[in-house]
Amino acid sequence: GNRINIAIDGPAGAGKSTIARMVAGQLNYIYIDTGAMYRAVTLAAQRAKVASSDEAALEQLLKKIQITLLPGDEGQLVWMNDEDVTGAIRKHEVTEQVSYYAAQRVVREVLSQWQRELAATKGVVMDGRDIGTAVLPSAELKIFLTASVSERASRRFKQLKPHEQMDLETLEKSIATRDELDKQRDISPLVQAEDAILLDSTGKSIDEVVQEVVNLGRCKM
Ligand code: C5P
Predict the structure, then answer these.
(1) CB within 8 Å of 103: residues ≥ 6 apart
(2) pLDDT tens digits, 163-172
(3) The pTM is what?
(4) Which of 31, 30, 27, 34 has its CA nearest to residue 10?
(5) DSSP code of 17?
(6) I want to staple 29 with a disulfide (CB 3.0 to 4.6 A). Which of 8, 24, 34, 88 is the partner?
(7) Residue with the nearest Cα to atom 4 of ligand 1?
(8) % helix / strand / coil in the chain, to the nearest 5?
(9) Residue 219 burial (10 A CB sphere; 0-12, 13-18, 19+)
């Protein structure tokens, strides 16, 4: 059949990246984690001490960074210029600030453009917040993946490394705050596209959800 693009959007911790990566693996498609790109820009801005409100400085900063996503054994590797930032972009300091940088017009414009270029050849599974609504509005399959806040927090909790310890309640609050910021922003907020299929993963296994998405994808090919 034809190669298609699959957009997977949804709130933090719904399992988008795990699902998207496995769907891409089954279909032999390319997986693109757009959240990693927003995280990389946030890391670069923090290091350069550029505030999220400083549009002019952000614009200059964006010109200096190149983000590369590479497939790795345990997930995607993220490179910024000549540095592997895979671990650094998952740190608490980045997670807490990323939604402020992601709300800026110049950041969204530049990253959306890169994302569209990556999807131009089709055969892409892209996950994020605005893929179905803004980045790839004509993606052949759009999924809006959710799960209850408590399930999302407990999944994240299990993934925390020993040095990242945080109690479940704090984690739940942090996830809820990020969702709120992502939903309330003016430019391409987190919202289910009208033509997206809502998939609630609460109580479902990863394999179950992956299979559902793959089957939906095959119907569009
Ligand atoms: O997917 P992940 O949780 O790593 O995304 C981190 C943050 O990046 C989100 O909370 C959101 O603020 C931003 N983001 C976005 N648009 C996307 C992907 C991520 O605004 N397409």
Answers:
(1) 52, 181, 185, 186, 187
(2) 778 889 999 9
(3) 0.96
(4) 34
(5) H
(6) 24
(7) 35
(8) 50, 15, 30
(9) exposed
215: amino acid identity, one letter: N
pLDDT of residue 162: 77
**CA 152, CA 134: separation in Å to the nearest integer?**
25
Structure tokens at 162: 């020993």
Strand pairing class (83-84; 75-80): antiparallel
Residue minimizing CA distance to atom 6 of ligand 1? 35
Q: Report residue 138's pLDDT band, with 50, 70 and 90 as the boundaries.
A: very high
pLDDT at 188 over 90: yes
Classify residue 98 as exposed, middle or buried by CB count within 10 Å of its CB (0-12, 13-18, 19+): buried
How many residues does the structure list for the chain?
221
Nearest CA to ligand 1 atom 5: 35
ipTM: 0.99
Sign of CA dihedral 30, 93, 52, 13: positive
The per-residue b/e assignment along 123-134, b for 16 or more CB within 10 angstroms, e otherwise, is: ebbbbbbbbbbb
Question: Mutate which of 31, 34, 38 to test ligand 1's pocket (most atoms within 8 Å of Cβ)?
Answer: 38
d(CA 201, CA 29): 22
- Identity at 23, one-letter amino acid code: V
